[in-house]
Design goal:
InterPro entries (chains A, B): ANTAR, CheY-like_superfamily, Nitrate/nitrite_sensing, WH-like_DNA-bd_sf
Protein name (chains A, B): ANTAR domain-containing protein
Number of helices of chain A: 15
Helix content of chain A: over 70%
Pfam family, one (chains A, B): ANTAR
Strand content of chain A: under 5%
Distance between the termini of chain A: 49 Å
Structural class of chain A: mainly alpha
Shape of chain A: globular
Radius of gyration of chain A: 27 Å
Oligomer: homodimer
Largest interface: A-B, 80 and 79 residues
GO molecular function (chains A, B): RNA binding
């Protein structure tokens, strides 16, 4: 029969187990970051190849494909280490489902690459075919952040997820830019898309900035003042002023690609620092938890050995209950006080942990709200994702409200309008 | 190497496992309800025995003690069936810790009962010695509700938890009434306590009403119109008008106990219905999930058997990716569409589940907020729990705001005042 002390120990072990599964999660997130980076490069360069139709780009493209394949293999190996029987609820179910998407998308890469090399696909379609698996991979990172059990690690994962998301938008911007510059101009839709990508990046990096460590924030500020970024901003202005009537020199495509790639490569370095930091944090936490667990076990063992006379213990527990104050006058009182102290301390710590975790997950919950509001607008007005996002963004600006608040209100009123609200 | 289909299946199994662990939880909650009920009766009757000093009550008390012990044994057996290694995070850790409290309290019962029989304890202290383990048991139910993975079951558990909490307050009211009537009067502190218990009950039953099924709500409304309740309200007025100067006949104690017990017994019947309903809901869900899982497995098997030519599948997936619309013109397109359809459907369902679950847990989160605000006020002003609650309640009334909103604002401002807020 399990005793109070057994359950106290099981509580600790349960925390420990949560941290251990986080360790694999952090490793997975690192692998995913590297694969996304490789796919982003391959996506951008594929557009150069498709746009220029020049065979001299072929070898470079093959190198990038080989990189992607190597990274994909690492992700697949990481997936294979996940215990498929470990799931205990909808949280894990969501994670598994997103992994299933990713694996399903992986199966299409061989055909995509064949068509690119045969020039049998439009740049826009190639971009899309690369962007979906990347989005799927980011969803895996999102679920990893959403199911992490440690507040500090959750904060790191939230910062990292938003950074990766921002970097992906920068990658899409690179591809969109290459497509437009190669064509010689950007039509109004392409220009609107460029503006959307810039705004959406800004929002991601703001959240990154809210959640990242000061050291990483400093590095990010330095990067933003870099000459590459200034040059890119200039080229973006050229793109936004272009039209079919006044085309741009297609040679700018390669310059744009180089500059955007330089910026993204520096982002990747920062991302690598974050994954390393995450990994070491996770290991530090596990060591700490292991040492706490050992101490805890020793303490409980000591308490249990003192606890041979059951009736004496009962008197002690009861003393504490009935008076609360005068129980410290004897060894019995002291002992009992320490069982209660350990219980109380553990309880307060777990409560605080829960509050911090909720706090750390706030931006993830806001993202879910925004996604739901976007989906609602897309369905209601037959909009694209970009357009739905812009609609929300305009509403937020008009009302001087936060995007998440507008999304929440929109969803509330939608319930009311559709008669789903509780009366 | 696990495939997309393996992960899709694992997602389903993971949901299934969550439901299975819910089944044990629901059983545990039922056992806990029965133990609490027995302890409540024993607590109330102990006060009659302690107040009257009459030996004729002894046999009745012994019967109630035997009931409590039998129910306690069932709870302990239920605890023993919990897999102590199944924990995977802070959620389970909180549950285990609350169970440790309860087991620790159980050890004090023998001594408590010995002292009651020797009349070596004040009624107030005896009440407290029973009330703490009951509070501990209710905390276990709260954690069970907070970690349930199904929105509908969570709603039932929230309704049940609040009902049990309200019933416990009714039990405390019974004990407080017996103490005062036996003494012959209620001093101002005792009267304030009676008022607090009435208000707090009201709040619990309001939440019950928000979350319970219509059938249960109807039963509850009927109970409230019952003659017993009217009689009790009349006696409560007598208590609130009493003073040391104008005492009441101590014989009212037994009448009060009988009436309050009748009311609580009817509550117990309603509680039993809720636990039964919970149990059958849980089994229904498990059957449904099992049948879904079987269908899913068959579907995936069919898809996998069609999926022998990898390059063909790649073409299909890719077709879908690049055009989204014209992929349904072949068996390949159809097949691929169904893998994607299953993935999308599963994803949408899991998302909706997450939203519903959050919705169902809202009142639990509000309770956590209120508890934190209460703890803050108790610490800040050295108040009792009752007094801190009244302070919050008055603030809510003055501002015409909900209790949870006042608690949230209080906590926000406390952070600001203590310089913890993010600037």
């Amino acid at each position: 029969m399990a005793s109070a002390l057994d359950f106290m120990l099981a509580a600790r072990r349960s925390e420990m187990q949560g941290l251990r599964s986080l360790e694999l999660t952090c490793e997975l997130v690192g692998c995913i970051g590297r694969l996304i980076h490789a796919l982003q490069r391959e996506r951008g360069f594929s557009n150069i190849y498709l746009g220029s139709h020049e065979e001299r780009y072929r070898a470079g493209l093959d190198d990038l494909t080989a990189d992607s394949q190597r990274m994909q293999q690492q992700v697949v190996e990481c997936f294979a280490r996940i215990d498929l029987e470990s799931g205990c609820g909808a949280d894990k179910a969501r994670l598994f489902n997103h992994i299933a998407y990713v694996l399903h998308y992986f199966e299409s890469f061989a055909e995509l690459r064949r068509r690119i090399r045969l020039l049998q696909i439009l740049p826009m379609d190639a971009t899309r075919a690369f962007s979906r698996p990347i989005k799927g991979l980011l969803n895996v990172v999102f679920e990893a952040a959403d199911t992490a059990v440690d507040p500090q690690i959750t904060r790191h994962l939230v910062a990292l997820f938003n950074f990766m998301q921002g970097k992906e938008l920068a990658g899409q911007e690179r591809a969109a830019g290459v497509a437009g510059f190669t064509l010689g101009y950007f039509d109004p839709a392409a220009q609107a898309h460029l503006r959307f990508l810039e705004d959406a990046q800004k929002r991601c990096f703001e959240i990154f900035n809210d959640y990242a460590e000061p050291g990483l924030r400093r590095l990010w500020r330095n990067l933003r003042a870099d000459q590459t970024v200034v040059e890119l901003a200039r080229l973006r202005q050229v793109a936004l002023r272009s039209s079919q009537a006044s085309p741009i020199a297609p040679a700018l495509a390669e310059i744009w690609f180089e500059l955007a790639s330089q910026r993204i490569d520096v982002m990747k370095q920062l991302e690598d620092q974050m994954t390393e930091h995450l990994h070491s944090q996770c290991q530090r936490k596990i060591l700490q938890a292991q040492s706490d667990l050992d101490n805890h076990r020793a303490l409980l063992k000591r308490l249990a050995s003192l606890d041979e006379d059951a009736s004496l213990l009962a008197t002690r527990v009861f003393n504490l209950q009935s008076t609360d104050l005068d129980a410290s006058d004897s060894l019995g009182g002291q002992l009992n006080r320490s069982v209660m102290d350990v219980l109380h301390a553990q309880n307060l710590r777990l409560q605080a942990l829960g509050v911090e975790l909720e706090e750390a997950r706030r931006s993830l919950n806001e993202r879910k709200l925004i996604d739901r509001a976007k989906a609602l607008l897309m369905k209601q007005h037959g909009l694209t994702e970009d357009a739905a996002y812009r609609m929300l963004q305009n509403a937020a600006m008009e009302r001087s409200q936060r995007l998440a608040d507008v999304a929440q209100h929109l969803l509330n009123y939608a319930e009311l309008l559709q008669g789903k609200a509780k009366l």
